[in-house]
Amino acid sequence: MKLSVLAAAAGIALSSTMAIAEPVNLTLSGGNPGGLWSLLGAGIDRATKVDDANSVVTYQATGGGFANIGLLGANRTDLGLMHDAEAKIALQGGEPFKAPIENLQAIGYLYNWAPMHFFLERSVAEKYGIDSLDDIAGSGAPLRIGINRSGNITSNVALMMLEEAGVTEESLDKAGGQFVRAGANEQADLIQDGRLDLITNGIFVNHSSFRAVDQNSDVVLLTVPAEIIEATNAAFGTGTMTIPGGSYSNQSADVASVALGAILVATDAMPDDVAASLATSLVNNIDEVRAVHSSMKELTPELLATPSVLDFHPAAAEVYRKAGLIK
Predict the structure, then answer these.
(1) From which residue to which does the signal peptide run (predicted)?
(2) Using CA atoms, how far apart are residues 312 and 291, in angstroms rounded to an integer?
(3) Strands 56-60 and 104-121, how do they pair?
(4) Which residues, at least 6 apart from 238, have a Cβ–Cβ distance to it below 8 Å?
(5) pLDDT at 57
């Protein structure tokens, strides 16, 4: 639902419910240059410029969500992008943090549709009777399983999901298999070359790396038991998403899985007027963020204002409240 429709339904005009955005000058810490998060940074910058041409949101490439949390925790950046699962770990003081990071406050939820995928070579699946994640442990299959590199949150999530299914480094070793640390594109190459049997990652449905796997390798998408999804979501603050049937060549039925999301985060040191101005620009000009990539077309003001593992900055929450997006 577009914001204009939402405001009309509430019987109020947008201009009467939200403050006019003031110019901002902020640094946003994201991820790799050229990746989706850098595009999001550009979209956020453009959204603020629509309201005031003097506004600047400067994108800073970093190592990703965990690095951004460290920068925010030390008040060395104004804004940071992070996955919901990374924020949950930070709040708990889990690895790689030495203590809880307690100054994080959300500005908005940017997406929640990056489901975990588990692609298995079809010949291996048929030989060992593996259709679901929880079939692996009892199959005796000597699987070589691709896991993203340490420091990438999808590796944490994949390892927990596999452990919940009874698959550990010890059990794999006993069966003659192993975990192989590799990035998404490298995993695609390795399974195509016959050097991996199962690959894992959490990213958008039909992402280019997944399309390459689907087109160049004969793989099946494993199903994930509901209890594994529930346990993982409880641990990481993630959500549940259905990968529609037909998304991949050998996938006829819907597959539910854990889904990662991304949050735009500030700290409790951000002045109220700055947080309010930023949130106002994002709601008013959300199309600027949606336009950065086709994968962002589902972003709505309602999603932006969806509660996550972090509390909203109070001034951002007030903007969403006045817009009728939250109560």
Answers:
(1) 1-21
(2) 24
(3) unpaired
(4) 84, 85, 157, 232, 258, 259, 260, 261
(5) 98
The string of pLDDT tens digits covering residues 226-264 is: 999 999 999 999 999 999 999 999 999 999 999 999 999
Give the start-to-end residue ranges of the domains of the chain: 25-112+261-323, 114-259
Partners of 181 in the beta sheet?
147
| The predicted structure's pLDDT at residue 322 | 97
CATH number of 114-259: 3.40.190.10
- What predicted TM-score, i.e. pTM, was given to this entire model? 0.90
pLDDT digits (tens, 9 = 90+) for 19-74: 566 789 999 999 988 889 999 999 999 999 999 999 999 999 999 999 999 999 99
User: How many whole angstroms separate alpha carbon 316 and alpha carbon 174?
Assistant: 52
